[in-house]
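Researcher: Please generate the 3D structure of the following complex. Treat every line as part of one assembly.
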Amino acid sequence: MSEATTSTETTAGTFEPRIQAFVCNWCTYTGADLAGTSRIPMAPNVRIIRLPCTGRIDTLFILKAFERGADGVIVSGCHPNDCHYAAGNFHARRRFAVFRELIDFLGLDPDRITFSWVSASEGKKWSEIVNDTTERIRRMGPFSAYRGLAGRTP
Amino acid sequence: MKELQDLAAKLLAEKTVGLVIGWEQGPRGARPAFVADPKDAGRLIFDNRCVHNLAAYLSPRRPHLRGFGRIAVAVKGCDVRAVAGLVRESQLKREDVVLLGVRCGGVHDEPTDAGPLTAENLADRCVGCEVREPPRCDHVLGELPPAPPSRDGRRAGRIAELDALDHAARFAFWRQELSRCVRCNACRQVCPLCTCERCLADKTDPPWIESSPHTRANFAWHATRALHLAGRCVDCGECERACPAGIPLNLIGRKVAAVVERRFGYRTTDDPQVPAPIGAWKPDDGQEFIR
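Model: Done. Output below.
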């Protein structure tokens, strides 16, 4: 894996959030595709990684994203009962619920992460999630507190 | 104690089991003992210094012990939950092990502590424990002891204190604690439910968990460990006792257990038939955090 640049502050001193999205292939990715082909304006801050299912999203992916320079993370998949694999999102929902409260307890603000269900027809909803998350993370500032933990003097 | 020694000698002599795992007197208090010869059964002890959860030796990560055939292992009431965890996850066949349950009235924080139990030196997990008689055992030994001294649980209080802080203050606390972790993996080795033959943290291509012991890697490791033990941790407290850096790992384990209980209504149990909460699901699980 190549090392991402770790600073998200631009030369002008302003902050442009870097947001990593983990989405499922069947609903949210298709929904994001719809948002694109429908020419819905969206913040350009989100990079998408497509996975077969939210059940494939290990919570370690989220921590890894923060390590590698993400300031925020979006996790999105099919609505309950719409999972292509029948129950992947139900399994994921339990894991995310525990993960969210765990990192909260460890002092990482869970508002850094947006969890959502976006179906293939919800291009509009996807654009709202992208824009809302970008704005929220912009207000929260860069997540250098976590990223910088690897330094000698954290 | 004589009862335990005699039974161990008998099981070994008639070759019901090839090995008895119990506790013995070591140079620094009680320690785990492995007895394969009936003549050595006299080494075995049980008293309130026997804090170790010996179910850790039943883990499939220790195949060399399987070479002894059936194993008898001495367990306190709480240790039975770890055995149940292994059986629940098909890591152990119940018939491959003989459980020697010992009646327990609480143990010390440390195996070096001698003397009577007081509210001060009682292990935190024993606070409010009502299991005198170990359940689901093949043999139950010892006299019925009195209940452990009562006091408030220290960890519950500490967790409530941390919960009351804001994110920045909690982050500062854990950054301080986790910066001391040297990634010796004692917490993993001593855990009866850490059963993976190859741990995620040992995988280097890609390196899912950074291997250097800096604070960021330690956050990822301890968060991942806690998640992998969510709904599986039996609160034996061995990780925290084994930690050479004195990191309060139990706080994380207890916090996650409380979340699992509140959200999924699951409490660690000695019944191997009850399904674990992570890996199961209900259509109406809470999703207030999902848009």
